[in-house]
Write a structure and sequence with these properties.
Helix content is 32%, strand content 13%. The protein contains 20 helices and 17 strands. It has a nine-stranded mixed β-sheet. The chain has a six-stranded mixed β-sheet with strand order 5-4-1-6-8-7, sandwiched between helices. A two-stranded antiparallel ribbon has the order 2-3. β2 and β3 form a beta hairpin. The chain is globular.
């Protein structure tokens, strides 16, 4: 007999369902049909087949309980009310996860896939109601839940994990779940604690990553590196699910996922195909900036593009039909805080309903009021702040300014404002990694991780050989492959001209402009389609700037 057949521990599964909105802010698709069944029916049927489970708690808000009762497919499925978690927690998780939907962890604020639908109080109530010893937390849209993997996860939790009270697998989102001992479920409910707080790196108490501890059930490494999300909770992932179900059958969901692992970008099975819309759109409002750090585009080039008026941008943004998972960044080669009509453009951007909006800035301006208004009106979700040194001396040297004191003053002003808003917008400092900053990388990361819960180590580029390379080492792999960015994102310059890549600083590979092209036309037009085909055919050396690019391997 197996351990699961002899253990007396009671294990329940819990799904936290909302039939209106998902944990990442998109429209819920639990009742949408796929392969002739509602998404939630697929999930529950797979969950019923998982070994070692006693009961399934399907939770939903009180007003949605009649909808939940439609999915009582078996006597083991029980419907209980879902207690809402604090709005600030939901908003923070929604914001953080938006920028890393294809991975189980690694996003802003150290939030994980398991946080998206984790409701501490509800899971505690379910554990008590069914006198459970352990709880398996499953995402409600996981229609590709792998039965064998999840059965093994429960076994690992009960039989092999003696170190910690939680167990997970680092597979792509939607393939499995998180198992917790009931006592830690109750403790998390008392403190309104979330899974990321158990799995995160804490510089004040450094320890081994849970990835190399018993808490992690190892799987095929390819399953943790798939650039896809196997939860049918966005338009993109729903279309991927439809495609994968048509191309099956597969023995297990893991086999299906491994087939998808050969994708160039989310949902793209062939180099000749492209998704209907980009995952990321970057808009450069101005070429002006106050700093000139290593790797920056010369002012004579970026400022010569000129700036469009706010009317051009608001008219274009108002006319767009963005996909529900689009990430919109205002950055480019200049600093958007120096654009006079920033507020007008951001208001139009918010009304276009991208999944999330990021503003990247040096934050060295002496007029912070426009940004304070932006925050007050909830116009950005992420504030990405570029730094050129952890110390004043290094910062001033690399930025060719004396603006470090102004930056720190502005950060001090922002701290109580974002704290009062539950940590929103998320503030993410970024340190440029060059030889001068190597000694400062660790103190920078640890300092800002404690203060803002996340930090990024950035890297300079040589803009495909067009400016001197000042990085520490060239990280490009020895074997060239097609550039993934061509299937995932694009950039619109301050003059309204769209280009395929930010490495193209002289705008050689243009895709149209906002005066005459919608986003779909830029993305699906002949120029970008031909460029993708050239990369699919390994002809990147025949075009500039792709022939000298070192950034093709980055996601």
């Amino acid at each position: 007999m197996t351990y699961l057949e002899t253990t007396s521990s009671k294990v329940i599964a819990a799904l936290c369902c909302d039939f209106d909105r998902t944990g990442i802010g998109t429209r819920a698709r639990l009742r949408d049909n796929i392969a002739n069944k509602p998404v939630l029916t697929h999930v529950l049927e797979r969950l019923l087949a998982v070994g070692g489970l006693d009961e399934i708690a399907l939770t939903a808000p009180e007003s949605q309980l009649p909808l939940a009762n439609e999915f009582k497919l078996h006597d083991r499925i029980h419907i209980i009310p879902l207690a809402a978690r604090p709005p600030q927690i939901s908003a923070r998780i929604r914001t953080a996860r938006a920028w890393n939907l294809q991975s189980w962890r690694g996003g802003a604020g150290q939030c994980t896939f398991f946080d998206e639908e984790y409701h501490p109080q509800t899971l505690s109530v379910a554990a008590k109601q069914f006198n459970a010893d352990h709880v398996l937390h499953i995402h409600s849209h996981s229609l590709f839940l792998d039965v064998e993997m999840t059965t093994a996860l429960i076994h690992h939790h009960l039989h092999k994990n003696y170190e910690m009270r939680i167990t997970y697998t680092p597979s792509a989102p939607g393939l499995s779940g998180l198992v917790l001992r009931a006592d830690i479920v109750h403790e998390m409910a008392e403190k309104t604690a979330m899974p990321w707080q158990l799995l995160a790196y804490d510089p004040k108490a450094p320890t081994f990553d849970t990835l190399i501890r018993d808490a992690c059930m190892q799987v095929d490494p390819a399953l943790s590196k798939i650039p896809n999300r196997f939860c049918a909770d966005t338009d993109r992932s729903f279309r991927l699910a439809e495609h994968l179900l048509r191309t099956g059958p597969y023995a297990t969901s893991a086999d299906l996922a491994l087939a998808a692992a050969r994708t160039i970008a989310s949902g793209v099975k062939s180099f000749s195909d492209a998704p209907d819309a980009p995952r990321e759109l970057e808009i450069e409002l101005t070429g002006k900036r106050q700093t000139t750090p290593p790797g920056s585009v010369p002012a004579i080039i970026r400022e010569a593009r000129g700036d469009l008026s706010a009317a051009h941008w608001t008219r274009w943004l108002t006319a767009q039909n963005f996909p529900d998972d689009l990430l919109l960044t205002f950055a480019g080669d200049g600093d958007p805080l120096l654009y006079p009509a920033l507020l007008d453009v951001l208001r139009a951007a918010r009304q276009a309903h991208p999944l999330s909006i990021c503003l990247q800035t040096d934050l060295a301006t002496d007029n912070l009021q426009p940004l304070l208004t932006v925050i007050e009106e909830n116009l950005v979700d992420i504030l990405s702040i570029t730094s050129y040194g952890h110390t004043a001396a290094t910062y001033n040297k690399l930025s060719n300014t004396t603006l470090h004191a102004q930056l720190m003053k502005n950060l001090t002003t922002l701290a109580p404002i974002t704290t009062a808003r539950g940590g929103l917008p998320l503030v993410i400092p970024r340190l440029l990694k060059v030889r001068e900053t190597i000694p400062e990388l660790e103190p920078f990361f640890d300092t800002w991780l404690q203060q803002t819960t996340w930090a990024v180590i950035d890297y300079p580029t040589d803009r495909a050989g067009q400016i001197p390379f000042v990085g520490v080492i060239d990280m490009a792999p020895p074997k060239r492959r097609p550039c993934r960015r061509l299937w995932d994102r694009l950039l619109i310059r301050a003059n309204g001209v769209a280009v395929a890549c930010d490495q193209d600083m002289n705008d050689k590979l243009t895709l149209g402009n906002i005066e005459s092209h919608a986003l779909e036309q830029m993305w699906n037009g002949a120029a970008l389609s031909n460029l993708r085909q050239q990369h699919a055919d390994a002809n990147w050396n025949a075009m500039s700037p792709c022939n000298n690019c070192k950034e093709w391997h980055r996601a």
